[in-house]
Specification:
The chain has 273 residues and is an alpha/beta fold. The chain has one domain: 4-Layer Sandwich (Nitrilase/N-carbamoyl-D-aminoacid amidohydrolase), CATH 3.60.110.10. 29% of the residues lie in helices and 29% in strands. The chain has 7 helices and 16 strands. The chain has helices at 15-31, 50-56, 64-76, 159-167, 181-199, 250-258, 261-264, and strands at 2-8, 36-38, 79-88, 94-102, 105-111, 117-119, 125-127, 139-143, 146-150, 172-174, 202-205, 209-211, 217-219, 223-225, 231-234, 241-247. The strands form 4 sheets. A 6-stranded mixed sheet has the order 5-4-3-2-1-16. It has a 6-stranded mixed sheet with strand order 8-9-10-11-14-15, with helices on one face. Strand 1 (2-8), helix 1 and strand 2 form a beta-alpha-beta unit.
Length: 273
């Protein structure tokens, strides 16, 4: 059994303020018995423009969120999954990077592969590729004796990524997010449950929620789902908070045995007529 915690946030403009708000939430989750603690996408700060973002972020070694995760994971004997934070890298782009620590050791990092370049209703438009360098590697990582698949937010709309992770042995999939309120109201629960059901896996996705200082509004509803699509824990609002659920990986093994679609998948050719 694994006890997993999701931390819902409303990150602001300054990473140091985030650290001050986040640390007691991580400690609270650990006090309640969590072995694995996940934060949302863009944990460190949320900025509308690349110029403002670059003023406050650091390289990975100096990043305040990275340092906190390393220190607290060692002190509390837990796995801490920073859903993502902006990391300054060489070149003209930034990495939207997940960082995963266990007992003070960096176990993996993952750069978001799929960029949220969309035009929504009511004039809402996003071009992540203007700021972020897309990742090129899908990642699974062993934590606390279980195999996790790493993804970030918009990745959840690309089911082949999660399928590949499940086939590689991941029983726990993740998509920490900063879903817009508009897209979250339409699709958040459906997409999260679909990725869990079709892969016979747990889905764990912490989220940003509420009206941020840069003017954007995110959906919240951080969630943990079992392999049959049942919601085990949810922060059913946009309010920052912590939710915890027990993860029994045997349920994933049983689901994949009953509905062995991962094994039954076949290669095929597409013909357009």
């Amino acid at each position: 059994m694994l006890k997993a915690a999701i931390i819902q946030m409303r990150s602001g403009l300054v990473p140091s303020d985030t650290v001050a708000a986040l640390e007691p939430m991580i400690r609270d989750a650990a006090f309640k018995g969590a072995d694995y603690i996940q934060t949302p996408e863009m944990t460190g700060c949320v900025h509308a423009t690349s110029e403002e973002l670059r003023k406050v972020i650091s390289n990975q070694e100096d990043d305040l969120i990275n340092k906190m995760a390393q220190s607290l994971s060692a002190e509390l004997n837990v796995a801490i999954h920073i859903g993502s934070t902006a990391i300054d890298i060489d070149g003209d782009k930034v990495a939207n990077r997940a960082l995963v620590y266990e007992n003070g050791e960096l176990k993996a990092f993952y750069d978001k592969i799929h960029m949220f370049d969309v035009d929504l209703d009511n004039g809402e438009s996003w071009r992540e590729s203007n700021t972020y360098k897309p990742g090129e590697e899908a990642i699974t990582v062993g934590l606390k004796g279980h195999q996790f698949g790493l993804a970030i937010c918009y990745d959840v709309r690309f089911p082949h990524l999660f399928r590949d992770q499940a086939v590689a042995g991941a029983n726990i999939l993740t998509a920490p997010a900063a879903f817009t309120k508009q897209t979250g109201e339409a699709h958040w629960h459906i997409l999260q449950r679909a990725r869990a059901i079709e892969n016979g896996a747990f889905m764990i996705s912490a989220a940003q929620g509420g009206l941020h200082d840069d003017g954007r509004e995110t959906y919240g509803h951080s969630i943990i789902i079992d392999p049959w699509g049942k919601i085990l824990a949810e922060i059913n609002s946009e309010t920052p908070g912590v939710a915890i659920a027990d993860i029994d990986v045997e349920l994933s093994i049983a689901a994949r045995s009953k509905i062995p679609n991962l094994k039954n998948s076949r290669d095929y050719k597409l013909k357009s007529l």
